[in-house]
Specification:
Order of helices and strands: HHEEEHEEHHEEEEEEEEHHH
Structural class: alpha+beta
Number of strands: 13
Number of helices: 8
Strand content: 15-25%
Distance between the termini: 52 Å
Helix content: 25-40%
Shape: globular
Length: 423
């Protein structure tokens, strides 16, 4: 059976920049050859999701087993062969088999468990990918002019005081965007794809939980289509964590951000459980994107009934009325509507260009999954930056750069000037 994930030639350079690379990046990392496991065990067809779990219980041993640390088969024999359909799932034990015979014997009792664990593994990988993509997107679309921040630690609690410059009035939409300087975190250069610094994650996610669901809405739905049974939006009151954030202006006056916080509640297919999905938990010190919903009470308390993820009361569809506002909120809505569109359309284009469906990527071996995930992240970063640059170029034909205020974006600081008429 041929793989839908062809081997790509490694690019000459490992990293690319949308600002410097004249061509679309080929990959963010050197390509990894597809093994028999990825090519056979996890291949999907359009009907495969409805028919069975991606795990394989027949065929060659190469499609069933992956190399692993030593374990024990249910017959008691030491072995290192694992079920490829459910191995490497966080919080779950791997299932070992010493031979195809034992694997076939155990199939009736393992098949349903395997489907459930595979579904959970898919969610974990999707959450990991979506979180990294959101950090990148937020870094590119950051809308606060942070001059510096103070960090104090006492008794296991960390407080960040963010100092912002809120002076000046922007005359165009993109003028509201500002780079979160790498120098604040001791980094050597500006890289919107590198968001490992925890302080940076805290600042990026501060006060934007609703926006994270809005702008990531379509991409979240695209990633979770094969594993989620239902998705709902839930507003919660956060429980104080081990990190607190206070934002102040140049005069020291605090900006009181609302205490409401938004998460997604995801019920999985194959009776694999219900999980809380929180893209902005870092601002409270919760750096795990995914947590069983039954344990989420330690982070936040639901205060209103949930709303359907794609229903008419979804917060995603509530932003349409803001599109024509001649205000900071309206400007950021217009810019994000255009930029976030490149997330899902870019993901589809990435699938076409590299012959790898996201659903297949989520079923690959750990090594191949990480490789494809990094490539997708870089591809989407390029797409979003290109969209911003295009917007800036169009805006520059009608707006003089000398009238654009003090935004730190170049050239994307020079944006589409809102029309006087309502859209």
């Amino acid at each position: 059976m041929e793989s839908h994930d062809p081997v790509l030639e490694p690019p000459n350079e490992i990293f690319y920049s949308a600002r410097t690379s004249p061509v679309r990046p080929q990959s963010a990392v050197p390509s990894i050859a597809v093994t028999a496991t990825e090519g056979v065990s996890h291949e999907e067809t359009d009907n495969s999701r409805a028919e069975t779990s991606p795990s394989t219980f027949g065929g060659s041993s190469a499609s069933v087993y992956t190399a692993a640390v030593a374990g024990f088969c249910f017959c008691g024999t030491p072995c290192d062969g694992r079920c490829a359909g459910c191995c490497d799932t966080p919080g779950q034990q791997d299932t070992y088999y010493c031979s195809p015979t034992c694997q076939g014997t155990d199939r009736p009792s393992h098949v349903q468990i395997c489907k459930a664990v595979n579904t959970l593994r898919t969610l974990h990988r999707a959450a990991e990918s979506l979180q990294e993509i959101y950090y990148m997107y937020r870094a590119k679309m950051f809308d606060r002019r942070v001059t510096n921040f103070e960090k104090t630690e006492e008794g296991g609690h960390t407080q960040l005081i963010i100092h912002e410059d809120r002076s000046g009035r922007q005359t165009n939409d993109l003028g509201y965007l500002h780079k979160l300087s790498h120098e604040l975190f001791g980094e050597e250069y500006q890289d919107d794809e590198d968001n490992e610094n925890k302080d940076k994650r805290v600042i990026l996610t501060h006060g934007v939980s609703a926006q994270s669901i809005v702008w990531m809405h379509d991409l979240i739905g695209y990633f979770l289509a094969g594993c989620a049974y239902t998705i709902s939006e839930q507003k919660v009151t956060p429980v104080p964590g081990n990190i607190s954030v206070l934002s102040v202006d140049s005069r020291g006056y605090p900006d009181m951000f609302p205490r409401e916080h938004f998460i997604l509640v995801i019920t999985l297919q194959n009776a694999a459980g219900t999980y809380a999905f929180d893209l902005c938990g870092a601002q409270y010190g919760n750096f795990e994107t995914l947590i069983p919903f039954s344990k989420y009470s330690s982070r936040g308390l639901a205060n209103v009934p949930p709303t359907p993820f794609s229903g008419k009361h979804s917060i995603r569809w509530g932003v349409d009325c803001l599109h024509s506002e001649q205000s900071r909120r309206g400007a950021l809505t217009r810019v994000n509507l255009l930029a976030s569109d490149k997330l899902v359309s870019g993901a589809v284009e990435w699938e076409k260009e590299y012959g790898t469906r996201i659903s297949t990527m989520l079923q690959a071996s750990p090594e191949v999954f990480q490789n494809r995930k990094e490539g997708l992240l870089h591809y989407l970063a390029y797409e979003v930056q290109t969209r911003l640059d295009d917007m800036a170029t169009k805006g520059a034909t009608t707006t003089s750069p000398t009238t654009m205020g003090t935004s730190t974006l170049t050239p994307a600081a020079f944006a589409l000037k809102p029309k006087a008429t309502r859209i």
